[in-house]
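Entry for biotin complex. Fields follow.
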Amino acid sequence: MLKGGKKNGMDTFDIKNRLNKIPHIPKNIEVRYFDVIESTSTAAKSDAGRAECDVLYVARRQTAGRGRLGRSFISPEGGLYMSFLFCGERRAEDALKMTVYAAVCVARAIEALTGLDVKIKWVNDLFLGEKKLAGILCEGVFDTRGGICAAVLGIGVNLVGDLGLEIKDIATTLSEHTECVPSAEELLVKIVEELYSLSGERFADVLCEYRRRSCVIGKRVKVLKADSEYYATATDIDEAGRLVLQKEDGSCEHLMTGEVSVRLT
Ligand code: BTN
C-alpha cells in the first residue's frame, strides 16, 4: 500500500524535499514511502526490472522484515526500515563491499546525530553495548541470464519502542541509550547523505574505519556454517572485507560472508 498521507512525521514528499536540499545527493532518486509493507527489500527486488533510476523504499512498519540467512527482522513501529534499489550490473563480490560501506555510513550517521559510539559486528550488524541496534542486508537481483542486474541495500534501525520478548535480550533501541533520539526521517536523510559521500571514498579507507569500529577483532568467536561449527579468534578484517580467523589448531582462515554466522562468545 503506497501512502501519500503523513504518518510519523514522514511522507514521500517530505523525504524527497529534504534529500533535494543536500548538494551531492542525485536529484533523480525516486522515493516510495509505505505506512506498512511486508518488506521494503522484497518490494525493491520485485520492482528491479522496471526501475530506471535509484529508488528508495521506506516504511513505518514491516510485517515480514528479512535479515541474513533467512532470518526475520522484527520491524514494529518505532524503527527505520529502508531499502535502496541500485540499478546496474554488479559482481557477486560487490555485496560484501557494499555491506562494509553501508555499515560504516549507518554508524557515522547515528554517531553524528547522537554522539553514541556505534560498533560493527562483522559483517552486517551494528551494536550499541552488547546488543544489536541495526542490521544491513545487501542482495543482488538476478536477470534471466544469471547475471546481477541490480543491488538492493536494506537497512533497519531500532529507534524507539518495544521490540518484544523474543529479542529483548539481544537487541536494543536508540532510546535505551540516549534521550535525544532522532526521528526516522532525520536518520534516513543522514544515512542517505553519508551513503552518497562515502561512495566517493576509497574502499581501503572505509575499511580502516570499519576495523576501528569492529567489536569482533581480538575476540573469541563461534563460527556457524551449514555443515560445521567451531571456535576461533578473530584477528583482523582483510583488504576484501573478509574476517580473518586464527583457528584453535593454529591455522588461519579468511571468512567470506554468505552461509556463515559469527557469534561473540
Ligand atoms: C540482518 O539483521 O541480518 C539484516 C537486517 C536488515 C533489515 C532491513 S529493514 C529494511 C529492509 N527490509 C527488510 O526486509 N530487511 C531490510
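NOTE: The two ends are 42 Å apart (CA to CA).
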